[in-house]
Design brief:
This protein has about 240 residues and is of the alpha+beta class. The chain is built from seven helices and 16 strands. Helix 1 crosses helix 2. It starts with a strand and ends with a helix.
């Protein structure tokens, strides 16, 4: 480390969590700086020792981003006692990574995983409006008026929230392409169910600048330098 940086940024660069979550760790007195409980604005310099839950942490030697094709049935969680399979069960990678965004158990498609807390934080900021693209198969052909209504945004009673406008294009009789800039809980399913439709299949094919490509269910790959640079630039980190 060539210069001193804020403590929350240092924790994020160690791959522990986002900066915001690091602030909470500091407030909860789970962090020590040279054996003392630090203040939120404290800075870390070369030679300082930072511990989280009494374990020393150090910046990552390399930041990695994985593109993973999550198949249906895998729960996007590292620890869920009720899940048959979680991300932790199916991803065998030498560096600890966690998910940047979610995808519900019954859905499939692209999920990004990384050890960079700053990237996770940037991607999960709903106000940033990062695009996510889906292919949705419905139980029947949707009416043009319903597509128009959903695209403008609808109020979801269960969440007590109105969805943001999105793009919906019909690509087959009962199949549509959707591009969203938010990720409410089971949002797409709730949107179509509010109009009496059922989803037969839901696949995410793009997250910001990263596409699913030729990955098959259960496969993952590490993004190349150019792909990572494009992603970081798109979410405002470069």
């Amino acid at each position: 480390m060539n210069e001193d940086i804020r403590l929350n940024k240092y924790i994020a660069e160690c791959g522990i969590c986002s900066r915001r979550e690091a602030d909470k760790l500091i407030a909860d007195k789970r962090v020590t700086l040279n054996g003392e409980y630090p203040q939120p604005g404290d800075r870390v310099s070369a030679g300082d020792v930072v511990c989280v839950d009494d374990k020393e942490i150090k910046p990552l030697a390399k930041k990695v981003v994985l593109a993973y094709y999550k198949p249906p049935g895998v729960t996007v969680s590292e620890a869920d006692p009720h899940a048959e399979q979680t991300i932790k069960d199916v991803i065998d990678y030498p560096v600890r990574v966690t998910y940047a965004g979610r995808l519900d158990k019954d859905s499939e498609g692209l999920l990004l995983l990384t050890n960079d807390g700053d990237l996770i934080h940037a991607m999960m900021q709903g106000r940033a409006g990062h695009e996510k693209e889906y292919i949705v198969k419905l139980d029947r052909e949707p009416e043009a008026s319903v597509i128009e209504k959903l695209a403008k945004g609808v109020y979801l009673r269960e969440l007590k929230q109105r969805t943001k406008p999105c793009r919906i294009d019909k690509i087959k009789r009962n199949m549509v392409r959707m591009v969203l800039t938010e990720g409410l809980n089971r949002q797409i399913r709730r949107m179509w169910e509010s109009e009496g439709y059922r989803i037969r299949a839901l696949k995410r094919i793009r997250v910001v600048s990263v596409s699913l490509g030729d990955l098959r269910p259960g496969e993952y790959c590490e993004l190349t330098g150019a792909q990572t640079d494009e992603l970081y630039k798109a979410v405002g980190l470069k």
